[in-house]
Amino acid sequence: MIELLAPPPEVAVREVFQLTPEIAEDLAGAGTVIFVDASVATDRVMLEPVEAGGGSMPISHSLAPAEVVALAQVLYGFTGRSWLCHVPGVDFEDGEGLSETAEANARRAAERLRAVLWG
Known about the structure:
CATH architecture: 3-Layer(aba) Sandwich
Radius of gyration: 15 Å
CATH topology: Rossmann fold
Strand content: 15-25%
CATH superfamily: HybD-like
Low-confidence stretches: none
CATH class: Alpha Beta
Number of domains: 1
Structural class: alpha+beta
Strand order of the largest sheet: 1-3-2
């Protein structure tokens, strides 16, 4: 999906398999952070604000975006905005490449993010 976004050189992009506590440091100096996640819970591209949180649950190796934002705020003084972009997904089995549906959804998400980020 990163190649579909075509971010300008000054935009830092990081592709990860899962969110881990170490990622919080990467958010420290960012003005805006956008998490992108494929989801079966939606049938359309959605962009929603992420509020720092996570309650008192113990930290594990995999975190939700709200938990990463909370860690970034507490440990590194992150004061930027954060968003979660849900991209519709249907088939999460191992395979090579994206299906036509997944490719179309990724393109819609990239268009939406480009419009929000770079006008």
